[in-house]
Design brief:
The protein has 912 residues and is an alpha+beta fold. Helices cover 42% and strands 10% of the residues. It contains 29 helices and 29 strands. The strands form 11 sheets. A 7-stranded mixed β-sheet has the order 22-21-28-23-24-25-27, with helices on both faces. Strands 5-6-7 form a 3-stranded antiparallel β-sheet. A 3-stranded antiparallel β-sheet has the order 12-13-14, with no helix packed on it. α14 packs parallel to α16 (461-475) and α21 (601-624) crosses α29. The longest helix has 26 residues, at 47-72. The two termini are 43 Å apart. Bound molecules: 1-deoxymannojirimycin. 1-deoxymannojirimycin binds next to loops.
Length: 912
């Protein structure tokens, strides 16, 4: 028995499965049985190929983990472009996303159980020793309760679970005496003050040292939290209780879940995205399965699997029924309003929902899982990664991609459920894309913009906790893993908790809520495991037959609500007026508008959608005035195209999306500000000139370097520390005059990105770059090279990074000679080029609308025409046809919809 209490300590005997664990076993059965019986028909992947891919995953993990340990540890995360650790307070704040960083070596803790899954037992043992030796959980830092729970508490518990497994096997971890569990318990107690609310819902943040609400804590005034933030605790907290015997953790997590359940919207059985932790009122009443809610649903089902408590399954099934009724519009999953669940609340989806097909597999509902997964895969095939948000017509809505693992997770579970080798091919594509587009000499860098292929200086800890686990397991056979993965459940961060916890320390009192579930529809259970036999009715091509119609869904899609429009066409109903077609001069349109919101709910639905579309259309039109971001790709040794920097466009000079990219070596101009005739034309002739921002207009700089024979220019920001990670996209304005004479492309880099180039020049002298609208495939030379052994490259990158810290910028001469003046206070009082505009695309706070509009409209002409014809025919035959019976004045309709409109506007502003 461990010191911590009655939990299963390291000396316990082999765990027994709980009687109810048939449930988990059954779910597991769903996952494994299909694998072994997959019939001939699909092209299987050979064992050799699977092993090759598994080894590739191992090598990639080594590259990510090795670089973190070498260049970032003990910092929380690696910054893979500058090859150093991200230490909170030492980098410009990124807002909420930094709340995961608690100065507790986050990536190391999050990676612990991945090491064991990947068979790196020795490294695991070393890592555990480092955690015990170095990690301090008592820092004066305000952290997210949710992130700390899933990543750190979950990481420690996953590490403990596998440490005791290894100890029991008798070879490794023989010295281990529940030390990780003790740390987990210490952390658990640190999180408990967050639950000090009347509702039992936790505050979103807590100070690790000072808790909450004390002046030193600097937190505790928040009133809202997200549903997932309050509803994603039960697995870790219950595991902590059951491992240690201290029931308080499980009790608190249950209480929060009970409260959320009570607050569900009773008519729709849906929950909103954010809730007031004091009053329990829904603050955001939109509801989906992605950002803000996702893991609440996941934890209800998994709590049932781990704890065997029927009430969790009943709640999950009730919610699932509502999700399938309102949110699921296969293959799409679209947010709706909790009070008006027939109304879509958005016309875009976020990347976090990619976990949902995996959850549907656990539920046993395979068909929609296959459909949604296939749709997501089509989006990935178009953009190489899943953008943070994309519209229902599959345009990029928010172009970032922080190497999220959800799609890999669903791919793994779908493979386990279907055994279809197609999913192995999907995994192979994910591996290829990661190596091709995200791999940098010092790790893997998040994508700043999937359209340009530019990078961001971040490698989130979940990349190691989740991505490598799921990818490795996808290709692994049972014998490739040193323990039975079926004995564990994955938390939302893919940490492993043993199923035997269900029968350990069950002393927590459970609320008897049976009577609350009377509305449950039994048909829910038709889909649960083990019904995969029915789902795969002797048809080896079942999964393929579900995917096939979706193969071209991305390229051939029609904007918004495809399915509902088609349905209305089929049923002979009049097609709704779409905002993009609306003309204020068309009397028919005005008539339709007047009638919207009248008695029938269809009219109201159309009206609300119309308003929503209008708002989106207008914000889209505003965004379309903005130029999209550009890319500066370093193509010379040792980068070979692997580092892609986000660059701001110029409102003058050639448009890089229409012209061929410009490739050339870089040279600093003299004077470095480029504000007068260059004194070193021989140095910049035929090259891409580097110029510092400030002192004159951008167009003037462009003319000066062009006159000196430069083929392009890169303006580097003189505001020290500025970075595309934290600043909105910047575009360089012209000088208000005719700029047609400027024939060379000009791009803008913030200081951090600029210093990567300047440091590369110091290191390698000859630095060649590509200026383009989108990163190009890396050099074939690079492909022939070994995968970066990391050593040379990362050493160089490290040197560059440390060099960049050392730059002491004193005058305005060439950086090669002296350095760059980057002190903001030394700016000339007339910083004329600061007249440049800042793009409103502000990626960090507002999604960027994709400007590559493709030819979607053209592709949809047929359907549009059909709709138009149908509409005309009906109008001809029945000129009095009306969509609503009781017309309301537009003002009153608008008043009715006011709340929804505000919600739409808010949603548009919200970050994921
Ligand atoms: C992970 O930290 C967890 O999976 C969480 O539930 C939400 N998503 C991130 C990774 O995208």
């Amino acid at each position: 028995m461990s010191e911590a209490g009655g939990g299963r300590g390291s000396g316990s005997s082999v765990p027994q499965r709980a009687p109810w664990s048939l449930v988990a076993a059954t779910a597991a059965l769903c996952l494994v049985s299909a694998t072994s019986v997959w019939p001939v028909g699909a092209a299987p992947m050979s064992r050799e190929e699977k092993q090759k891919l598994g080894n590739q995953v191992l090598e990639m993990f080594d590259h990510a983990y090795g670089n973190y340990m070498e260049h970032a540890y003990p910092a929380d995360e690696l910054m893979p472009l500058t090859c150093r650790g991200r230490v909170r307070g030492q980098e410009p704040s990124r807002g909420d996303v930094d709340d995961a960083l608690g100065k507790f070596s986050l990536t190391l803790i999050d990676s612990l159980d991945t090491l064991v899954v990947l068979n790196k037992t020795k490294e695991f043992e070393d890592a555990v020793r480092k955690v015990l030796r170095d990690v301090n959980l008592d820092n004066d830092v305000v952290v997210s309760v949710f992130e700390t729970n899933i990543r750190v508490l979950g990481g420690l518990l996953g590490g403990h679970s596998l440490a005791i497994m290894l100890k029991e096997k008798g070879e490794y971890m023989q010295w281990y005496n529940d030390e990780l569990l003790q740390m987990a318990k210490q952390l658990g107690y640190k999180l408990l003050p967050a639950f000090n609310t009347t509702s039992g819902l936790p505050y979103p943040r807590i100070n690790l040292k000072f808790g909450i609400r004390k002046p030193e804590a600097r937190t505790g005034t928040e009133t809202d939290t997200c549903t997932a933030c309050a509803g994603t605790l039960i697995l870790e907290f219950a595991a902590l209780s059951r491992f240690t015997g201290a029931t308080i953790f499980e009790e608190y997590a249950r209480k929060a879940l009970d409260f959320l359940w009570e607050k569900r919207q009773r008519s729709s059985n849906l929950v909103g995205v954010t809730i007031n932790i004091h009053t329990g009122d829904w603050v955001r009443k939109d509801s989906g399965v992605g950002a803000g809610i996702d893991s609440y649903y996941e934890y209800l089902l998994k709590a049932y699997v781990l704890l065997g408590d029927d009430s969790f399954l009943e709640r999950f099934n009730t919610h699932y029924d509502a999700i399938m009724r309102y949110i699921s519009q296969p293959p799409l999953l679209l947010d709706v309003h909790i009070h008006k669940p027939m109304l879509n609340a958005r016309t875009w989806m976020d990347a976090l929902l990619a976990f949902f097909p995996g959850l549907q597999v656990l539920k046993g509902d395979i068909r929609p899982a296959i459909e949604t997964h296939e749709m997501l895969y089509q989006v990935i095939k178009k953009h190489n990664f899943l953008p943070e948000a994309f519209t229902t017509d599959f345009r990029v809505h928010w172009a970032q991609h922080p190497l999220r693992p959800e799609f890999a997770e669903s791919t793994y579970f779908l493979y386990k459920a279907t055994g279809d080798p197609y999913y192995l091919e999907v995994g192979k594509t994910l591996i290829e894309n990661l190596n091709k587009y995200a791999r940098v000499p010092c790790g893997f860098a998040a994508m700043k913009d999937v359209r340009t292929g530019s990078h961001e200086d971040r490698m989130d800890s979940f990349f190691l906790a989740e991505m490598f686990k799921y990818l490795y397991l996808l290709f692994a056979d049972k014998e490739d893993i040193i323990f039975d993965i079926e004995d564990y459940i994955f938390t939302t961060e893919a940490h492993l908790l043993p199923l035997w916890l269900s029968t350990t320390n069950q002393r927590v009192s459970k609320k008897n809520t049976t009577s609350e579930y009377t509305e449950l529809d039994d048909s829910n259970f038709d889909w649960t495991c083990p019904n995969t036999q029915i789902l795969f009715p002797n048809d080896p091509l079942y999964a393929q037959s579900i995917r096939e119609p979706l193969k071209n869904v991305v390229d051939k899609s029609c904007p918004r609500g495809i399915i509902r429009v088609e349905e209305s066409l089929r049923s002979g109903a009049k097609p709704p007026l779409r905002a993009r077609d609306f003309m204020a001069t068309n009397p028919d349109h005005l008539e339709i508008l007047k009638k919207m919101g009248a008695a029938s709910s269809i009219d109201a639905e159309d009206g609300l959608r119309f308003m929503q579309e209008m708002i989106e259309l207008s914000s889209q039109q505003q965004k379309e005035q903005q130029l999209p971001p550009r890319a500066v790709q370093i193509v010379s040794h040792p980068f070979f195209g692997r580092v892609v920097l986000t660059a701001g466009p110029a409102q003058f000079g050639p448009d890089l999306s229409k012209h061929k990219e410009t490739r050339g070596f870089v040279a600093s101009s003299k004077p470095y500000n480029g504000c007068s005739e260059l004194t070193n034309p021989e140095a910049v002739m035929g090259k891409i000139a580097l110029i510092q921002r400030g002192q004159c207009m951008f167009a003037e700089k462009a003319r000066n370097i062009q006159n000196a024979g430069a083929i392009g220019g890169i303006v580097i920001d003189d505001n020290e520390g500025s970075s595309s990670d934290t600043a909105p996209l910047f575009q360089m304005a012209g000088d208000g005059k005719d700029t047609d004479d400027i024939k060379i492309p000009m791009l803008f880099l913030f200081s951090k990105e600029g210093s990567i180039i300047l440091d590369a020049i110091r290191e390698y002298e000859e630095v060649e770059v590509l200026l383009s609208d989108k990163a190009k495939d890396r050099d074939p030379e690079m492909e022939n090279e070994e995968q970066p052994s990391s050593e040379n490259d990362s050493q160089s990158a490290e040197q560059i990074a440390s060099r960049s810290q050392e730059i002491d910028l004193v005058d305005q001469e060439s950086p090669e000679e002296s350095s760059v003046n980057s002190h903001p206070e030394s700016l000339s009082p007339v910083d004329t080029d600061s007249a440049a505009s800042v793009s409103s695309s502000e990626q960090d706070s507002n999604p960027v609308e994709n400007l590559e509009t493709t030819s979607l409209d053209g592709e949809c002409t047929d359907l549009d025409n059909q709709l138009q014809e149908q509409s005309e025919t009906e109008e001809d035959s029945n000129p009095n046809v009306s969509w609503g019976q009781k017309a309301q004045p537009i003002d009153s309709i608008l008043a009715d919809w006011n709340e929804d409109i505000e919600a739409f506007e808010m949603m548009d502003k919200d970050e994921l």
